[in-house]
Amino acid sequence: MKEIFNINGKNKKIELRPDSTLLEALRDNGFTEVKNGCEEGQCGACLVLVDDVSVNSCQILAMSVKDQTIVTSKGLGDQHKPSIIQEAYVDAGAVQCGFCTPGFVISTYSLLKKNPNPTEEEIKSALDGNLCRCTGYIKIIDAVKLAAKRMNGGEDNEK
Amino acid sequence: MKNNFKTVNHSVRKIDGLGLATGEELFTDDYDIRDCAVIKLMPSPYAYAEITDIDESEALKMEGVIDVLSYKNVERIMHTTAGQSYPEPAPYDCAIFDNTVRFVGDKVLAVIAEDEKTALKAIKKIKVKYNILEPALDYEKSEDRETSRVHTEKDAIQIIPIKFQPEKNIASEVNAVVGDVEKGYKESDEVMEDTFYTQYAHHCMMEPSSTKGYIDGRGRLVLITSTQVPFHTRRIVSHATKIPVSKIRVIKPRIGGGFGNKQEALLEPIVAFAVWKHRIPIKLILKRDEVFVFSRTRHPFRIKYKVGFNKNGEIKAIHLDALQNTGAFGTHALTVVSCVGSKILPLLNKIPNMLFTGKAVYTNLPAGGAYRGYGATQGYFAYTQMIDVICEKCGIDQAEYYKKWHIKTGETSEIFKALGEGKPGHIFKIDSCELTQCIDKGAEAIDWKSKKAKYSFKNKKNKNERYIKGIGMGCFMQGSSVPYIDMASVYIKMNDDGSFNLNLGATDLGTGSDTVLSQIAAEVLETSINNILVISSDTDVTPFDVGAYASSTTYLSGLAVKDCAEKIKKIIKKHAAKKLAVKEEDIDLFEGNAFIKGSKDSCSYGEICTSAMHIDEMEQIQATSSRVSKSSPPPFSAHFAEIVIDTLTGNIKVEKYVTATDCGVCINPKLAEGQVEGALVNGLSYALIEDYSFSKKGNMMNNGFGKYKIYTAADLPEIITIMAENSYENTGPYGAKSVAEVCINGPIPVIANAFYNATGKRLHKAPFKPEYILEILGE
Ligand code: FES
Ligand code: FES
């Protein structure tokens, strides 16, 4: 069946089944920046914003959020116009294989929106639902701090 | 040593970083191939069984089901899935489909269907009859007479002359001798022995194993696949399916981590066979629960040491014995066992008598494979605690002990020669070793000496405190490539705007090697990294490289890039000299321009290439290079950990962990640190929480991230990452050696040593879960 969804600020007709998860529906329709790392709600690779709240898209049915706005990592910024968070991840060396990164970008967005000046402990607990096997998280935490600093207009010596 | 590098040794941004962060870079399953059918594998419900009948007739009647592949209709060609150079030192002990299944989750058959749901339904309709066999589940008993033999098929072979004895359940065996250990024990003041066990673990790369295939416009098979070894994969697929190499193109897109797991041609032969037969696009993407069981794992080991030493701590003889549970297949069996000796014994190279005995035995459990650390991780558990025991017994500080005895620049180890990969190794001298610096810096960062005394169980006044602290240390080494086995090659051509295409066989599996190798090219070519355009790992387009393993890419592929870029540089100079009407020696290259030495007269790279291509010589400025490694310079690392033990719950919390690592010159310091930290945190997770739990029948019970927990950001201790200064490896490109693996070796033994410091007790079994800790504390 075909349904209209609001994804990354645009209404888009997408092809899906009634029982498609949001993850399946997005990936099947070209939103491959949303990754499938486990389909069990454990890894955070599939995180998207649903009405500005981060959600594991593998854990909900697409039809259940049909009337809500959906934003993926690419909706926050693309190479042409990257978001501060995405840039910070690259500058901090927080991207290795990058399979986890779009999910981390979404988590970081959610955190910084609620809490523009998170402490190290707050960052760690906000990222607890995202798995990364490459980085050991240290540079990811640096990236969140860097993004916060830049968003707050702070001096940026890194760049 | 003062380096004036312009691009090398700078933390330039990872070239694919932004595209990955936004999600625009593509991984295997992101490629949009229309009407792509799917493969689903039927997992074996039994640890060991013979398939006596398959009735797929009901499934084949279903709409959307394309085919069912099994031993009944797929030619049996024995091969190994190990992605290693030919001839592989791994037994040819598997076929694409077999009439025997050898572990719970082994592939019985494959359904090809138009979509996943249909494939899953079809699997339910297939009736399989089994003759259930008694499985071999305890690897310490694998060789016992009463234990079933896992490989009784007559056609399993080992293609090089190394010991392969399936009739004894032995996949591989290796021994190496230096001096005479018995004599050494006799000369020792004390001889002691001990035994240690390490567990199964998974790589948990975030991208599941994935392969897609289709037939291109010229009838050739294209495989887009998440692999660390595209060229080995092409060869293995060709062998296993009889599709000629000339008809196969393997493309590696972005990969979501490998850590050794994807050094295997595991899914590719299945997909290749299916696509070749049906001439349609087909994909096979494992689900996470399948990834845990069906893809490769870290081999569990039993490691024993017997050591003779004198009162002053001098070791006279050591015997290291490694028994590996290789699981159902012997992929990487021999080489992982060998590395227990070859990546550990050279560390204290002055021991006159050394014996290494290693054996890999089959069981009816998931197959082991390559995993970051590659046997060294398992072996150091025993070895590093052994050093700790000697130091404690002899009253010598561990840091001082390592500083005295560790291998130094200009020295060698007999082990390099005695222990190769399926054949003798090669002797080489250590060209760079800053381990002493690492030990000093690490010790200072954690305040080693005073904390060691303060936390020591010997000095504890209150024996009944709930939380007790401890501190431990250890030193580690690995290698950089496998000498005279690993080869890397590169092609560079120049474009008319002065940019360069860098075509690499090397495989970036997320580590950043595309970036690091571009930096090396930019450095040689006196240009910005933005002018280096990388394509890597496409068997049609890029020259051969063994792939991403054995910590070889920065070192060996880096050497090939440097060599190739230097050839290009010469050609540029030649053209510039002609253009500027001077001798080649009078040309200097600087920031994309050729200058006459000492003058401002210049021409740009763009002008040089344009005239070379279109006006004057009418030629393409291009070069190729291929390099074989002649040495395997070890990176070194000193690790220190401070822990807190909750004696009530048995929980161990690492409070602070310091690594100080010598990897030569860091081509990209941030990426190098990322390798250290990624390996370390993976190691911490392995040491404390990761394990496979099996049912009595050999069924993995925790094959999902819900039950198989790995470290998250919330679990991190305070981590301090120190990179050694002034280390320069002359045999490497711009002084570099490897960094990816060495740090995963630290956490298990270093935490165990800290546990001893706190309690006076030794840990013998990883992981250090609360139940085990309580058991040890209660003893
Ligand atoms: S794919 Fe959704 S949480 Fe892992
Ligand atoms: S960068 Fe590879 S999983 Fe996070």
List the helices and strands and how they pair.
The complex is a heterodimer of chains A (159) and B (779).
Chain A: E1 2-7, E2 10-15, H1 22-28, E3 47-50, E4 53-56, E5 69-71, H2 73-76, H3 84-91, H4 101-114, H5 120-126, H6 138-151
Chain B: H1 17-22, E1 37-43, E2 49-55, H2 57-61, E3 65-69, E4 100-101, E5 107-113, H3 116-125, E6 127-132, E7 170-178, H4 181-186, E8 190-198, E9 210-215, E10 221-225, H5 230-241, E11 248-251, H6 268-278, E12 282-285, H7 288-294, E13 301-309, E14 315-327, H8 333-342, E15 353-362, H9 376-394, H10 398-405, H11 414-418, H12 435-446, H13 448-455, E16 467-477, E17 487-494, E18 500-504, H14 513-525, E19 532-536, H15 553-580, E20 587-590, E21 593-596, E22 602-604, H16 605-615, E23 622-628, E24 636-646, E25 651-662, H17 669-688, E26 718-723, H18 747-759, H19 770-778
Parallel strand pairs in B: 1-12, 10-11, 14-15, 18-19, 25-26
Antiparallel strand pairs in B: 1-5, 2-4, 2-6, 3-5, 7-15, 8-13, 9-10, 9-12, 13-14, 16-24, 17-18, 17-23, 20-21, 21-22, 24-25
Helix pairs in contact in B: 5-6, 8-9, 9-18, 14-15, 15-16
The complex binds FE2/S2 (inorganic) cluster (2 copies).
What does this structure look like?
By secondary structure, chain A is α+β, with helices and mostly antiparallel strands. Chain A folds into two domains: 2-72, Beta-grasp domain (Ubiquitin-like (UB roll), Roll); 84-151, Orthogonal Bundle (DNA polymerase, domain 1), CATH 1.10.150.120. Chain A has helices at 22-28, 73-76, 84-91, 101-114, 120-126, 138-151; strands at 2-7, 10-15, 47-50, 53-56, 69-71. Chain A has a five-stranded mixed beta sheet, with helices on both faces. In chain A, a hairpin with a 2-residue loop joins strand 1 (2-7) and strand 2 (10-15). Chain A starts with a strand and ends in an 8-residue tail after the last helix. The model of chain A has no long low-confidence stretch (mean pLDDT 96). Chain B has three domains: 17-25 and 486-628, Aldehyde Oxidoreductase, domain 4 (2-Layer Sandwich); 31-133 and 209-285, Alpha-Beta Complex (Aldehyde Oxidoreductase, domain 3); 301-481 and 631-778, Aldehyde oxidase/xanthine dehydrogenase, molybdopterin binding domain (Aldehyde Oxidoreductase, domain 4, 2-Layer Sandwich), CATH 3.30.365. In chain B, a hairpin with a 4-residue loop joins strand 24 and strand 25 (651-662). The two termini of chain B are 53 Å apart. By secondary structure, chain B is of the alpha+beta class. In chain B, the strands form six sheets. Chain B has a seven-stranded mixed beta sheet, with helices on both faces. In chain B, strands 7-15-14-13-8 form a five-stranded mixed beta sheet. Chain B has a four-stranded mixed beta sheet with strand order 16-24-25-26, sandwiched between helices. Classes of the chains: A alpha+beta (159), B alpha+beta (779). Chains A and B meet through helix 2, helix 3, helix 4, helix 5 and helix 6 of A and helix 1 and helix 17 of B. The complex binds FE2/S2 (inorganic) cluster (2 copies). The site of one FE2/S2 (inorganic) cluster (FES) has 12 residues of chain A, from loops. One FE2/S2 (inorganic) cluster sits between chains A (96-100, 132-135) and B (206, 257, 510).
